[in-house]
Design goal:
Blueprint (H helix, E strand, L loop, with lengths): L6 H33 L3 H29 L3 H17 L6 H30 L5 H23 L7 H25 L13 H6 L4 H6 L1 H20 L3 H8 L5 H26 L1 H21 L3 H29 L5 H27 L5 E3 L5 E3 L4 H24 L9
Antiparallel strand pairs: 1-2
Helix pairs in contact: 1-4, 1-5, 1-6, 2-4, 2-14, 3-4, 3-6, 4-14, 5-11, 5-13, 9-13, 9-14, 9-15, 11-12, 11-13, 12-13, 12-15
Length: 418
């Protein structure tokens, strides 16, 4: 029997999950466009911003996740965190150069990771169990695509070549995030079995990094390592994706092309959690990885609108369903009562390692990219389709490792819930 969660849980999850992803989409996809258009940032500067943010996100989640375990509360960290997160987003309206954006991005990431990566994700783990995590993660993993659609649709009326447009965007997104923080005080319900961790803070901080903990939970760390490689594949191309569509392919109205792909992928992702609940990780990871790889192949070889749409759809479906099954399996394997402490190692696998390695690989691939002359006499790079070839290579390596693991574990049959 599937455990019931109640309307208040779903309301809080949808509001906090969606607004958090809207804020992350603005950071992860549009900050890159922002500094590219406003300050003519290079591929190296974009890579540096993504890498710096990944480091801050990992350190913040390690510390604040453990602190929330020690306090035995998630609600205050989520609500106050979203409030301050929104205020930091507003500040981007008045930044003047790439360096200021990178520094403020790190400040914003601290509060965003406290509220979302540490507290919100620990809260989701607290409230779910093995009977409903696939469903929860299916809906939760749909949020990035829905948020992309919201952000893209909202940006259609803005001229992103003008600083005034960016200021309005930051005001709207920042104020909305602040409002969600206020609503959290009324919507969020703590898990009934959550108790403060009375262990010394230093011990709580290092718990998930201790060799003894790794020996006790080997499957968790193996899944985290696989998740890191999955994330590296995504981060090779993601920082440059919108620039590739607009500048390299010449799709000035790429939002209109991507919107249907995003809607379809969101539906697929929402439903895919049921596959995990019924068949487990060992089965559900393969279709996700297959869709991702096929999407890469189409995006690498094609330039016309129809195949680019199909490739984008498959890539997004593979990306989000992969996030769903990896996320659900990680939550299943986290020891009860220690959700906050394990958000640090989760974010290392999901954000830190991919955020360091993926953009660096992408930047290396684009080192000799074609340059275009801007109207002010400066030059900007054009991302090439090679970013999808590099991303495909990482995904294929992941597939080979998973094949080896399941065959070695049981050459005759695979445990679908492994």
């Amino acid at each position: 029997m599937q455990s019931k969660l109640g309307g208040s849980f779903w309301a809080a999850m949808l509001i906090f999950g969606l607004m958090g992803q809207v804020a992350w989409v603005v950071e992860n996809m549009h900050f890159n466009v922002f500094i590219y258009k406003m300050f003519h940032a290079s591929a190296g500067e974009i890579s540096a911003m993504v890498m710096a943010s990944a480091v801050v996100a990992a350190l913040t989640t390690i510390v604040m996740g453990a602190v929330s375990d020690r306090v035995g509360r998630r609600k205050a960290f989520m609500s106050v965190g979203y409030l301050i997160w929104g205020l930091t987003i507003v500040s981007f309206a008045w930044l003047k150069n790439v360096l200021m954006v990178i520094v403020m991005d790190c400040v914003m990431t601290f509060f965003g990771s406290t509220a979302n990566d540490a507290a919100y994700n620990a809260w989701l783990t607290d409230r779910g169990d093995e009977t409903n995590r696939g469903r929860i993660e299916g809906v939760n993993s749909m949020m990035p695509l829905v948020s992309i659609l919201i952000v893209f649709g909202s940006f259609l009326s803005f001229d992103l070549e003008r600083m005034e447009s960016w200021r309005t965007i930051y005001y709207i997104i920042g104020a909305s995030t602040v409002l969600i923080g206020v609503l959290g005080f009324f919507l969020i319900e703590e898990a009934p079995n959550l108790r403060p961790d009375r262990a010394p803070l230093a011990k709580t901080l290092v718990y998930s990094f201790r060799p003894s903990t790794m020996r006790q939970n080997p499957r968790l760390y193996l899944v985290l390592a696989a998740f890191a490689l999955f994330g590296i594949s995504i981060q090779i191309f993601m920082p440059y994706l919108l620039i590739y569509y607009e500048k390299t392919l010449g799709m000035e109205n790429y939002v209109l092309i991507l919107a249907p792909a995003i809607l379809l992928a969101a539906v697929v992702t929402a439903l895919y959690g049921r596959v995990y609940d019924r068949r487990g990780f060992g089965f559900s990871v393969w279709p996700a990885l297959g869709m991702l790889c096929l999407g890469y192949v189409l995006l690498y070889f094609t330039r016309a609108t129809a195949p680019v749409f199909l490739g984008s759809l498959l890539m997004m479906c593979g990306y989000l369903t992969g996030m769903s099954v990896f996320g659900a399996r990680i939550r299943d394997l986290i020891p009860a009562g220690r959700a906050g402490q394990f958000q640090g190692v989760r974010i290392i696998g999901q954000v830190f390692i991919p955020g360091l390695i993926g953009p660096a690989v992408g930047s290396a691939v684009l080192r000799n990219a074609e340059q275009i002359l801007n109207s002010d006499g400066t030059y900007s790079f054009l991302p090439s389709a090679n970013i999808f070839a590099a991303a495909l290579a990482a995904a294929v390596i992941l597939g080979l490792i998973l094949c080896f693991y399941y065959f070695k574990r049981n050459p005759e049959r695979s445990d679908s819930h492994a």
